[in-house]
Amino acid sequence: MGLLIFNDKGIYCAQADVYIDPWRPVKKALITHGHADHSRSGHEDYLCSREAAPAIQHRIPKARIQPIEFGSHIVENGVRFSFHPAGHILGSAQIRVEYKGEVWVVSGDYKLEDDGVSGAYEVVPCEHFITESTFGLPVYDWEEQDAVYRQIRNWWHGNAAEGRTSVICAYSLGKAQRLLHGISEGPGLFLTHGAVEALNEVYRQQGISLPASISAAQVKDKETLGRALVICPPAAVGTPWFKRFVRPAVAMASGWMSIRGQKKRGGMDRGFVISDHADWKGLNQAVEASGAAHVYVTHGFTDVFARYLREEKGLNAQTVRTLFEGETE
Q1: Which of 4, 34, 192, 246 is 20 to 30 A from 238, alpha carbon to alpha carbon?
Q2: How far apart, in Å, are the Cα atoms of 82 and each of 98, 105, 108, 121, 318?
Q3: Which pTM does this prediction carry?
């Protein structure tokens, strides 16, 4: 394939002897962001954006991390690497790789809509573009995020009026903080699962403005719980921790909620369509803006998206197998 190849450990640059988002332990790993499918334990050295480093350190305490400023570069055996904003979560990066005029961009996970927390996506021109396709079907077409936040606030107000705890399931890293920032206020307190609150503190220590939130485990008063909005990982639903809430109304915040029927999966009462991944239009816009003639589609609806890029856009697009997961259901 050229400068970068896909092998059984990850995306490999042989000239520099480094990996990008490897899924098996390696000597030197360049990491796009802190989600577990891209940032795994066991590597000797981790290089990531300065903004991504605190969350990665929190999740992998023993990681030896070298933070890199966005827009700056490092050189390994003549290969130039630089980190550029991907807009997925705080510190998420696209990694640009250049050697003797050949330019690749590994986009990791990304979204083009600026959520006010994760940073704005940056177009990085290249010849070879490695993209996800988590929501790589035309049916995935996101609403404006402010409209979704209004829906959540209205739902919360309705539940609070009935004395019911509002519970939203979301990823602890990235989605939870985006929801807090976007919803911003309501009829009661923001309560969180411990895993979410720990990462809220990581964000706050980096200067990210989030509304006040406290761990739900600290609240006993039923009236307070009945007016609260709780943000927790999906796995927390149904656990002993969850049983403290008052007639909980449970929702999922995910791009998958745009498909009718998904809303009731796992006992959810409501689904809100909000994703930290690009929708169909966003994926196409990112590929086109990159100017790449060669596109490598990793996780998601890979075959559909790659075929569309070949047949409709005239690009040399192909699918590649990885262990990246995107936004799981």
Answers
A1: 34
A2: 9, 10, 14, 15, 24
A3: 0.96
